[in-house]
Amino acid sequence: MADRDGFIWYDGKLVPWREATTHVLTHTLHYGMGVFEGVRAYKTDKGPAIFRLQDHTDRLFRSAHILGMKMPFDKETLNAAQKEVVRVNQLESGYLRPMAFYGAEAMGISAKTLSTHVIVAAWPWGAYLGQEALEKGIRVKTSSFSRHHVNITMCKAKANGNYMNSILAHREAEHDGYDEALLLDVDGFVAEGSGENIFIVRRGKLYTPDLTSALEGITRDTIIQLAGELGIPVIEKRITRDEVYSADEAFFTGTAAEVTPIRELDNRSIGAGTRGPITTQLQAMYFDCVQGRSAKHADWLSHV
Ligand code: PMP
User: What is the pLDDT of residue 99?
Assistant: First the structure.
């Protein structure tokens, strides 16, 4: 990742990719206190467009607010920076990574005197779990790691340190031959994937866990809106793993994972063991929106 051509927006300036470095005593590197976003830009007929840019920027600022990190730039500047990195890196489509992190002025837990730095990078990135995953679905394993408790880390913040939990879960699932992990909350109810929200379908209705310990996903919100337009009821409630086993369909949502069908959980096939009809319909609608084919949701796209 570090050795490539291009530019990264770094504290207000475009810096050549290889020079966008930081000191080894950077506070966030040691303690994980930082916030970030994962955003996608898609190729459309009118050129590249960023999907739900303002919503991602708003969540970045909410995350910083939750952690008590002062953002040195305003939202308009960061919106412009995200468009700029897509432009200057000449991307038709890609993944964007805005991040705010503490500087290297001091070590120790007190972060009082630290400056906050902000970067925005962008690079080409295809289907997160592979193209086949989008068509056929993935095999998932319930993790031995619980999702964060709401009073241990801040689950509504997309915070760097929270992702140690995701990496442990994902690594375990991958090691055991699965594509992704499903994390349960500390009470044993379904929370989310390592980087995705989850939905299940039963008898024509969609169910998704409430947001107690899951990230408030922007794709999740998109799917809830699209399901509403199709007249599919969406119920937010506590879900157990055996409800997922016996669901008609299940899928993950996320900016990176988009709408990825789950064909199997813990070696039980879900429904017909393939992408189900409601998943197929919502996934197609999602791609219509992100790729600029939905006149109704043109306002979700920010052309660069
Ligand atoms: N949960 C977690 C833990 C995530 O990392 C992500 C990805 N940001 C999501 C859910 C999905 O969020 P979004 O749809 O906004 O990408």
Answer: 99
Residue 88 is predicted with a pLDDT of 98
User: What is the per-residue pLDDT across 218-263, written as a single tens digit (0 to 9) for each?
Assistant: 999 999 999 999 999 999 999 999 999 999 999 999 999 999 999 9
CATH number at residue 170: 3.20.10.10
Q: Are residues 50 and 138 in the same domain?
A: no
Amino acid at 134: L
Report long-range pairs for 277-284 (Cβ below 8 Å, ≥24 apart).
277/249, 278/201, 278/204, 278/206, 278/232, 278/248, 278/249, 279/201, 279/249, 279/250, 279/251, 281/230, 282/223, 282/226, 282/227, 282/230, 282/251, 283/134, 283/251, 283/258, 283/259
Q: How many angstroms is it from 106 CA to the middle of ligand 1?
A: 31
Instruction: Evaluate whether residue 1 is within a structural domain.
Output: no
Distances (CA, A) of 163 to 32, 43, 113, 175: 9, 29, 25, 18
Atom of ligand 1 nearest to the CA of 219: 14
Whether residue 285 sits in one domain with residue 203: yes
Same domain, 119 and 140: no
Number of folded domains in the chain? Answer: 2
Q: Is 297 within a domain?
A: no
Query: Of 92, 123, 154, which one is at a domain's C-terminal end?
Result: 123
Q: ipTM value of the model?
A: 0.99
Which residues have any ligand 1 atom within 6 Å of their CB?
Answer: 38, 158, 166, 192, 195-197, 214-215, 217-220, 253-255
Which residues 6+ apart lie within 8 Å of 181 measured at CB?
140, 141, 142, 143, 145, 169, 170, 172, 173, 193, 194
Q: Over range 267-289, report the average pLDDT.
A: 98
Q: What are 118-169's pLDDT values in tens digits?
A: 999 999 998 888 899 999 999 999 999 999 999 999 999 999 999 999 999 9
Task: Give the pLDDT mean for 66-72.
Answer: 97
